[in-house]
Amino acid sequence: MSEEVSLNFISADQAWERFDRAAQDLLNLSGEEFARRLDAGDIAELPQSPSMRVAMLRPEEAA
Amino acid sequence: MAQFAEPLQRALTAFAHGSLSAEVPAVGGQTTIVFNDHTPTPLRVADGPPVAISISLKIRLDDREGEPYVKTVGWSHAVFVDGVDRLRYDWHPFVTPLIPFPHVHIEDAKAHVPTGRILVEDVLVAALEYGALPLSKDWKDRLRTAKSAFEATAEWGISDSSTGEHWLARWDDDGQVVDDSGLSSSL
């Protein structure tokens, strides 16, 4: 890991992979399933962590 | 984007290592700037329970008379102690339109306690209160520089700098509390 805080620009695919990985690790859902439930208003604990941590990572293309 | 992120990098570097990452949005588009994939990043502590932070900012890239302007449209930052998010500062109207105001969750409670604008620098100072220590002795200058950069372009939520400066005087360059007598007498 760098001794500083670097700034990395990522691709749309990498952003989706990051979102998908977080959904799986934190909620045991795929990113696609989390996005579907989010759009359906079906994330009961949305205001709480870790759901919000995942929601913040959702790329705009999926909005 | 890089100009917007540079003060964040300088402030975060005083406390942690890692990377900020983001897609580059098209003009009018949004993206999330995330520190270490929004996972809790451990900070240095002298003793006591481990302290960590998570940082993410939702931004929109606007066009201001031909010039790009990065506008913050949301955030979700947390201070973790012993693995529990004791403070989570949120503003996410794009996800929860019924909760359109900035707020803090305390001790992972469901209550949304309204706040003003919360900067990454504010989160770092909150982490100090839970026992985190800076990595560099110039941490105050880094926070001041970051806040000045924000104030130069911010359209709302500019805080009282003199009040913030008074609060920073509570800690020395090593992040140790130097004098709590005034705090004690005020409580």
Note the main attributes of this structure:
heterodimer, A: 63 residues, 3 helices, 49% helix, B: alpha+beta, nine-stranded antiparallel β-sheet, two-stranded antiparallel sheet, globular
Count of individual beta strands of chain A? 1
Beginning-to-end CA distance, first to last residue of chain B: 42 Å
Overall number of strands of chain B? 11
Helix content of chain A: 40-55%
Task: Output the number of helix runs of chain B.
Answer: 5
Helix content of chain B: 25-40%
Order of helices and strands of chain B: HEEEEEEEEEEHEHHH
Q: Please, what is the average pLDDT of chain A?
A: 86
Mean pLDDT over the residues of chain B = 90
What's the structural domain tally of chain B?
1
What share of the residues of chain A does DSSP label as strand, in percent? 5-15%
The DSSP helix count of chain A reads: 3
Parts with pLDDT < 50 across at least 5 consecutive residues of chain B: none
Rg value of chain A: 13 Å
Low-confidence stretches of chain A: none
Taking the sheet with the most strands of chain A, its summary is: none
List the quaternary state of the chains.
heterodimer
Report on this model:
The complex is a heterodimer of chains A (63) and B (187). Chain A is built from 3 helices and 1 strand, in the order βααα. Chain A is mainly alpha-helical and 63 residues long. Chain A has a domain at 12-40. Chain A is globular, with a radius of gyration of 13 Å. The model of chain A has no long low-confidence stretch (mean pLDDT 86). Chain B is an alpha+beta fold. Chain B has one domain (2-186). Chain B is built from 5 helices and 11 strands, in the order αββββββββββαβααα. Chain B has helices at residues 2-13, 120-129, 139-153, 161-168, 181-186; strands at residues 18-23, 30-35, 41-42, 44-45, 51-54, 56-64, 67-81, 84-91, 103-106, 113-114, 132-133. In chain B, strands 1, 2, 3, 5, 6, 7, 8, 9 and 10 form a 9-stranded antiparallel beta sheet that branches. The model of chain B has no long low-confidence stretch (mean pLDDT 90). Classes of the chains: A mainly alpha (63), B alpha+beta (187). At the A-B interface, β1, α1 and α3 of A face α1, β1, β2, β7 and β8 of B. β1 (5-10) of chain A pairs parallel with β1 (18-23) of chain B.
